[in-house]
Structures are given as structure tokens and as C-alpha cells.
Design goal:
The chain has 9 helices and 4 strands; from the N terminus they run βααβαβαααβααα. The chain is an alpha+beta fold and 258 residues long.
Length: 258
């Protein structure tokens, strides 16, 4: 898994503080940034958190490039509707020797990993065989319709792989560009940094958290799983390790913030 912070709103914390200032003062827009020192900005951000006024937080956004995650993760992360996604297409990009993600629990058992790898190899062979058969069919039809050979080959391959992709597994690796505003990210971290989240998306969420915390530590000072700065929200389904989770995030934050 690789995660990069591609871009983010310049001075995200100051922007959010300005939006909050607009809500709570009579200052006109010409002076909306005046007096927003580091201390005043931090004060505004803490106030928003304390009173639960979250809409100003939406003005800052962050864009990530994500690689080496599975299609299984893709199905989970795109359930977060307040974000924008651009995903590598299996319709337009042929999967030649596709990479895949091996769950750690499978990797821990040599026999299980061998079975898993065989399944991936079988899927690749089936995908290639289907692609070849579909290509032959479409190529003939397109040539019979009078299309030039070069164009016929290009269109036939596209038509072939868009149907052959149906045999590709959830483990198949993909690439994502994701953009979300800070409020949506805070919600994402509450849900996906939790120990009860599935292992792959939890690992991704923590990598994303580290990247945004490094550039906006006040804004994300109380982000992460709910138990880090409050009570566990999982009820009877709690993992029971709140103390360990808190210690982990305290260490993480102190390392990132120097």
C-alpha cells in the first residue's frame, strides 16, 4: 500500500477559522483574515469542536493518491459518499499479470497462501483466455463491418476486457485518487480507524490520518477512533482495548508533531 497527500487547501486551519469568524463576528470580508494569529486560529478550531459546529470544517479539502489496495477496499471506501473518487478502470486498462492483496491471516498460513495464490493464477489464466476468445469474436465482426485492422484491434480489445473483467477477484489491486473535505475525513477516521474496521481499510485510514495530521494538527487533534478522545461507541461490540488504542495514537501524534 502506498498513500500520498497530493494536494490540500492552503492554510486549511486558518481558512476554517475565517469561516468560523464569519459566523460569530460582525467583521466584513475585507477584514475576515485580520487578527487570525496561530493562537486565535487554534482557539476557533477548538471552539468548533467543543460546540459541535462542524460545517466550517468543510471548507478545507485534501486529495490523496492511493495504490496497492484491493477492489474489496474500493467497495468499502466508496460508501463514504461525501468524497470524490477516480479509480483505475478495468474496462479500459487490461490486467496483464494483475497484482493482488493477500490478507495477513491468509499469509500467516503457508498452505492457505498457496491456495490463495493458485486461485489468483487461475483467475489470471481465465481472464486471459476469456479476453482472447472475446477479442477474436469482436475483431471478426468489426473487420466484417469494414473497420480498418488497427481500429478493429483497438476496439475489439476494449470490448473483450470490459466483459472478461467479471472474473477478476476482489483481491485485485487498484489505484485511487480521493478528495474529501476535512469534516468528511473526520467522520471517515472515526469509522475506519476503529479497531473493529476491516484490516485493510483501517491501515489506509491510519496512513491518511498521519498525512493530514502532519499538515493540520489542530484540525485533526481529536480525530481517529472515538475511544481516543472519548468513549467507545461500539457498545457490546467493543474491542475492549481502548487504553492500548489511546496510547498508540498519543505516540503517533507526538511523533508527527515533533
Amino acid at each position: 500500500m502506498k498513500v500520498h497527500l497530493l494536494a490540500y487547501t492552503p492554510q486549511p486551519e486558518k481558512l476554517i477559522a475565517a469561516a468560523a469568524k464569519n459566523c460569530y463576528s460582525s467583521t466584513d470580508i475585507d477584514g475576515i483574515l485580520d487578527g487570525l494569529t496561530e493562537e486565535k486560529t487554534e482557539s476557533f478550531l477548538h471552539m468548533l469542536t467543543d460546540i459541535g459546529h462542524e460545517s466550517p470544517i468543510e471548507h478545507a479539502s485534501f486529495s490523496f493518491a492511493i495504490e496497492g489496495v484491493s477492489r474489496s477496499l474500493l467497495a468499502q471506501i466508496t460508501r463514504h459518499r461525501m468524497a470524490s473518487f477516480s479509480v483505475q478502470s478495468q474496462r479500459y486498462v487490461k490486467e496483464r499479470g494483475f497484482e493482488y492483496v493477500v490478507p495477513p491471516e491468509i499469509a500467516d498460513i503457508p498452505e492457505a497462501q498457496a491456495l490463495f495464490e493458485k486461485a489468483m493464477d487461475d483467475d489470471q489464466q481465465t481472464y486471459e483466455a476469456l479476453t482472447a476468445k472475446l477479442f477474436d469474436k469482436h475483431f471478426k465482426v468489426l473487420c466484417d463491418e469494414g473497420l480498418a485492422e488497427k481500429q478493429a484491434r483497438s476496439q475489439a480489445e476494449k470490448k473483450a476486457i470490459e466483459d472478461a473483467r467479471y472474473v477478476l477477484p476482489n483481491a485485485c489491486a487498484t489505484r485511487i485518487v480521493m478528495t474529501a473535505n476535512a469534516r468528511s475525513l473526520q467522520n471517515f477516521f472515526r469509522l475506519r480507524c476503529c479497531a473493529r474496521a476491516q484490516w485493510e481499510i483501517r491501515a489506509l485510514a491510519e496512513e491518511m490520518y498521519k498525512l493530514v495530521y502532519a499538515v493540520a494538527p489542530v484540525l485533526f487533534s481529536k480525530s481517529g477512533p472515538p475511544c481516543v478522545d472519548g468513549d467507545c461507541t461500539e457498545g457490546k461490540m467493543s474491542c475492549g482495548h481502548a487504553l492500548e488504542v489511546r496510547a498508540h495514537y498519543e505516540t503517533l501524534r507526538s511523533t508527527l508533531h515533533g
